[in-house]
């Protein structure tokens, strides 16, 4: 059977990512094609499994204009380039996959879903895979304080949920995969209640890790007597980073050689705020912000850690997340302290394979480290 994966973003990072594993598994039994944008960065290993087709079109001036208007540098969404990518995907599928041919259009929770929606209207089989809830990006923008981000979140809300009615198109899919243990999960119930998806279309798929990638090397050791607390993931306010800083400030009074290591992407705006708070709390020597690292380097950092942390706050979007990083912590036999959230309870049993603490409670997090 032919499967057409539509993905408009880069494909980099952990090989334990759900997207990577979906492609790797399906390519073993099906003819899989991956449709990507012209300038998308893709891991070399992906080409071993699938046929990669790049869109020949890309227009840059809208992105440059938006960058200038928002007074920011770096990558930014290119709306015209994206529309051309959508049109190209749809035309290619029509050309290569006649209507009565057995095949699937496979999309994810972002705007690529419109290719699947249009395909479904013409009679193709459309499968959508919700690796995250579609409103996650909107919530991430809302948590930023600058006016331009608040305006951007407002505009994106209008475009996604008022004009395009993004939350209503998923019910047209033949099947909807989501990360969860069963349909009664937090995300499953939200998809039924808020997105209008019929229960018989929902297919829960729990996250997991490839244990072959998470073997302890036994070669990594540092004799500096540091007591390392490790966080891996996006470094932002809703991830509970400021709670970690508050806890470390208290922990260093009892454990002077404590060191908090933050591994993951951090926005320029939050990085400025983070540095200021580290200085105010007088924990500059106790906190290291390492930024993004390769997956192999991340696994090495996990091996070096004494305790691994998952301090997410309880929000509508993050409450049901089943994080791959926590599974990697456990696969490497690390002590895990995590926020007591719906998604985490399916992984961590309190005082059995980890410690659960109330979200946003620095004092309880500190006490958990002491135990």
If you compute it from the alpha carbons, what radius of gyration comes out, rounded to the nearest whole angstrom? 22 Å
Number of domains: 2
**Biggest sheet, strands in spatial order?**
3-2-1-4-5-6-7
Strand count, sense and barrel status of the largest sheet are: 7 strands, parallel
Which range does the strand content fall in? Answer: 15-25%
Question: What is the distance, rounded to the nearest whole angstrom, between the alpha carbons of the first and last residues?
Answer: 53 Å
How many E strands? 13
Helix content: 25-40%
The CATH architecture of the largest domain: 3-Layer(aba) Sandwich
Helix/strand/pairing class, anyone?
Answer: alpha/beta
Number of helices: 14
- Looking at this structure, what is the CATH superfamily of the largest domain? Glycogen Phosphorylase B
Mean pLDDT: 82
Low-confidence stretches: 70-76
State the CATH topology of the largest domain: Rossmann fold
> How would the global form be characterised?
elongated
Class of the largest domain, according to the CATH hierarchy?
A: Alpha Beta
Following the backbone from N to C, one meets helices and strands in this order, namely EHEHEHHEHEHHHEHEEHEHEHEHEEH
């Amino acid at each position: 059977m032919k499967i057409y994966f539509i993905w408009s973003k880069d494909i980099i990072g952990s090989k334990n990512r759900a997207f990577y594993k979906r492609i790797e598994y399906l390519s073993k039994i099906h003819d899989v094609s991956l449709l990507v944008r012209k300038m998308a960065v893709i891991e070399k290993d992906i080409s071993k499994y699938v046929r990669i087709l790049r869109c020949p079109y890309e227009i840059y001036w809208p992105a440059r204009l938006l960058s200038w208007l928002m007074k920011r540098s770096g990558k930014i969404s290119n709306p015209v380039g994206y529309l051309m990518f959508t049109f190209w995907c749809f035309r290619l599928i029509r050309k290569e996959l006649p209507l009565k041919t057995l095949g699937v259009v496979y999309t994810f929770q972002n705007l690529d879903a419109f290719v699947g929606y249009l395909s479904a209207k013409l009679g193709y089989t459309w499968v959508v895979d919700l690796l995250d809830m579609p409103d996650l990006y909107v919530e991430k923008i809302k948590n930023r304080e600058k006016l331009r981000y608040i305006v951007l979140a407002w505009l994106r809300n209008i475009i996604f949920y008022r004009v395009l009615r993004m939350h209503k198109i998923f019910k047209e899919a033949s099947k909807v995969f989501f990360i969860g243990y069963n349909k009664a999960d937090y995300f499953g119930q939200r998809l039924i209640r808020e997105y209008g998806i019929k229960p018989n279309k929902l297919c829960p798929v729990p996250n997991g890790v490839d244990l072959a990638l998470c073997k302890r090397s036994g070669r990594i050791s540092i004799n500096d007597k540091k007591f390392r607390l490790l966080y891996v993931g996006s470094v932002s306010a809703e991830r509970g980073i400021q709670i970690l800083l508050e806890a470390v400030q208290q922990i260093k009074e009892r454990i002077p050689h404590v060191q908090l290591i933050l591994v993951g992407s951090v926005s320029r705006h939050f990085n400025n705020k983070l540095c200021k708070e580290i200085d105010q709390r007088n924990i500059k020597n106790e906190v290291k912000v390492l930024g993004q690292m390769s997956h192999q380097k991340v696994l090495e950092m996990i091996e070096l850690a004494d305790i691994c942390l998952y301090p997410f706050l309880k929000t509508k979007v993050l409450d049901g997340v089943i994080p791959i990083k926590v599974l990697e912590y456990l696969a490497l036999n690390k002590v895990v302290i995590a926020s007591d959230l719906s998604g985490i309870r399916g992984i961590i049993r309190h005082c059995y394979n980890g410690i659960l603490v109330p979200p946003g409670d620095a004092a309880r997090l500190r006490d958990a480290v002491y135990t």
